[in-house]
Design a protein that fits this description.
Distance between the termini: 154 Å
Number of strands: 24
Largest sheet: 8 strands, mixed
Oligomer: single chain
Strand order of the largest sheet: 13-12-11-14-18-16-19-17
Helix content: 25-40%
Shape: globular
Number of helices: 14
Length: about 675
């Protein structure tokens, strides 16, 4: 038993010793494994951190490389754009085309222009030696005859014009333009869409004199290309004879002639007698020489023997109150309009060219050449917005810049590029400028009268107050623009007419403008965003324009609000009431007498109730598209040399003078139709 117990103890201690040894070994193994595991984890985390850092470095390098590439590409694209734009500009304005064919003829070597010309329903295009000078394929625009004028020695482009000879009077404008082009120039003509409807016989004859064999038979929707050299004895310098007139006849009324795509070569002149004019070396002639080397179609400006003057000495005006009032000439890309307007303005008594600035909406070269020709300041700015919004922003930018240029000026005069001005244009404003400072109920002073036609405006000394803003040659105060209009002006996303906005009651705030009975400006422009030759012919061609210098205006102080009310009340109360049983459209409505004042009472329930007035305006052949030129529901003008007053009843406060039993005239929109004056 004891032996057995000893045996048990032996095995117990032996097993305990082994277990202890095994446990310690296992512990060491576990500890070693833990250490190995920890070491592996630490190594793994280190590897992961290194990979993250490496990935970040790679990403940073890729970003930097991408930015460098983007910047480089941007710089390259802009450089290409600048170089291409500059190249095209040079081609467009008097630099020679780059490609030139040399052909031997009769033992001599000549240079030839290669002209590629397209005429079709939807496109008109002309390229000169591979450089595209005209490419009009815009839908709904560019109808008519496209004209390109080239220098006969260099091939440089000197003028580009479009004449919508589908519309009236455009053929006359084209004939005038061709007549104003210098002798020897190469003229290219091509039709887009339709160009014959109003191509009258005198223009057809002119084209025939310059060598056209098809001008007399050019018909409805025909396509046509014609290239000729202007001269006393016109003769094409074409390779192989006459090759630069082509006609595609329309087969019926609903179709167009076949599209024409023609290539012809025109020989350049080597005539040594066609060198520059030998004008005296003066500052004026330096401007003239620069102008005439770049543009065409301005007639005697570039005449070598008797050039028309471009410097003027306007006479002073008595008691000049606007000597230091700046003048903004609002212009766009209508250089010939601008030329005509500036010649008219600079010759007027009191004109001060130092106070004039021409503002051009866009970076157009030819209008700026016209500005430099007359030695004036010109400012071009980037257009903002489109269509009406663009025009509106142009006016705002021009006024803002003008007042910034002249910080001490309290007034400014605006005049558009498509206006002729009267001989007393500045004298007129000089006599009235003080009213804007003295009468807070005045909004502006305008040289225009919406109802000032040759048959309805006769008294050059007479003035009116009207509650619409006429524009077309007008004066305003710095205070009005800087404190009100500038901050409220419509933004470029608003497709509003700036003048219609200025007429809004919330902007005008019951203020009125002073206008003349006989206008001091005449609108001659037949093309523009809101203008065409038909509209010009119908509503503007027979406008009146004062032709007297230094007209002394009468009763200027009566243009102040309180005084004017007395004048109007006296005129209405003393006027003879016309026979209201006769239609205003009848010739007998106005008696065949002169020097009288007649009054007409018509139905007008409120300010917007202008139906009857517009029909009366149609009958009298004055402005009838909307209600303008009124004063508190009253209109004043002349007919048959009699003063006519029309009063809207019951809206106008002057309705109180209507005889009790008299029924006001009421007309509806179907009663009359307007005919052109």
């Amino acid at each position: 038993m004891e032996k057995d117990q000893c045996t048990v103890d032996y095995y117990y201690h032996s097993w305990s010793k082994r277990w202890s040894t095994t446990t310690r070994s296992a512990s060491r193994i576990v500890t070693s494994a833990d250490n190995i595991s920890t070491s592996a984890a630490t190594h793994q985390r280190g590897c992961r951190c290194n990979w993250i850092r490496m990935r970040r470095r790679i990403f940073a390098k890729l970003c930097r490389t991408t930015i460098v590439i983007v910047i480089t590409l941007t710089i390259l694209v802009n450089l290409i754009f600048i170089l291409e734009f500059g190249y095209k500009s040079k081609l467009s304005f008097s630099d020679e085309p780059t490609s030139r064919a040399n052909i031997s003829d009769d033992g001599q070597s000549y240079q030839y222009l290669t002209l590629e010309i397209v005429s079709s329903q939807s496109r008109a295009a002309v390229s000169v030696d591979g450089a595209m000078m005209i490419d009009d394929n815009e839908v709904g625009k560019g109808r008519g005859i496209h004209v390109l004028v080239l220098n006969q020695r260099t091939g440089a482009v000197m003028a580009r014009q479009i004449f919508d000879t589908y519309s009236p009077h455009e053929d006359e404008a084209m004939s005038l333009f061709v007549n104003l082009v210098s002798k020897g120039r190469i003229i290219v003509m091509t039709i887009k869409d339709e160009g014959s409807f109003h191509l009258k016989q005198p223009t057809r004859d002119l084209l025939q004199r310059y060598g056209s064999k098809n001008s007399q038979i050019l018909g409805w929707r025909d396509t046509w290309i014609f290239v000729f050299e202007k001269g006393d004895n016109p003769q094409l310098r074409g390779v192989g004879g006459r090759c630069c007139e082509h006609l595609g006849k329309s087969s019926n009324f609903l179709s167009w002639g076949q599209p024409l795509s023609v290539t012809c070569k025109v020989r350049l002149s080597t005539d040594q007698h066609e060198e520059e004019c030998q004008w005296p070396d003066t500052e004026e002639n330096q401007r003239r020489r620069e102008f005439c080397s770049r543009v065409e179609g301005y007639g005697s400006v570039c005449d070598c023997h008797q050039p028309t003057p471009i410097t003027f000495q306007p006479s002073p005006i008595p008691n000049n109150q606007i000597r230091n009032v700046p003048v903004a000439i609002i212009a766009s890309d209508r250089p010939r309009y601008l030329y005509r307007m500036l010649r008219s303005l600079l010759r007027v008594g009191g004109a001060n060219k130092e106070m004039m600035t021409v503002f051009i909406d866009g970076y157009y070269e030819e209008p700026m050449q016209v500005v430099r020709l007359f030695g004036l300041k010109g400012i071009q700015h980037k257009p903002l917005g489109i269509k009406n919004a663009r025009i509106s922003q142009h006016y705002k930018a021009s006024l803002s810049t003008l007042f910034k240029q002249h910080p001490d000026s309290r007034h400014a005069i605006l005049v558009e590029e498509d206006l002729d001005v009267a001989p007393d244009f500045f004298h007129y404003f000089s006599q009235l400028v003080h009213l804007l400072d003295e009468d807070p109920t005045l909004y502006c002073v305008s040289a225009w009268n919406d109802h000032g036609y040759q048959h309805s405006a006769v008294n050059a000394t007479l003035l009116y107050r009207v509650d619409t803003m006429p524009g077309l040659g007008w004066m305003l105060t710095r205070k009005l623009f800087k404190e009100e209009l500038e901050t409220l002006w419509p933004t470029q996303d608003k497709m509003w007419d700036w003048d219609m906005w200025m007429r809004k009651p919330s902007v005008r705030r019951d203020r009125e403008c002073v206008i003349p009975d006989v206008p001091r400006t005449y609108h001659f422009g037949a093309s523009g965003l809101n203008m065409n030759s038909f509209f010009q012919d119908t509503y503007f061609r027979k406008r009146a324009l004062n032709n007297q210098a230094d007209v002394q205006l009468h009763d200027i102080e009566n243009m102040k609000a309180i005084n004017y009310e007395r004048v109007v009340e006296t005129a209405v109360s003393n006027a003879t009431v016309l026979d209201h049983t006769i239609s205003p459209c009848e010739e007998s409505f106005i008696p065949n007498v002169t020097g009288e004042t007649f009054v007409v009472y018509m139905k007008m329930e409120h300010a917007r109730d202008t139906i009857t007035w517009l029909q009366i305006a149609k009958c009298f052949k004055i402005w009838d598209l909307d209600a303008r030129g009124s004063h508190k529901g009253l209109w004043r003008f002349y007919l048959k040399n009699n003063s006519i007053v029309v009063v809207g009843v019951p809206f106008s406060p002057y309705s109180k003078f209507k005889p009790t039993k008299l029924n006001p005239i009421e007309l509806h929109s179907t009663v009359t139709t307007r005919k052109s004056n």
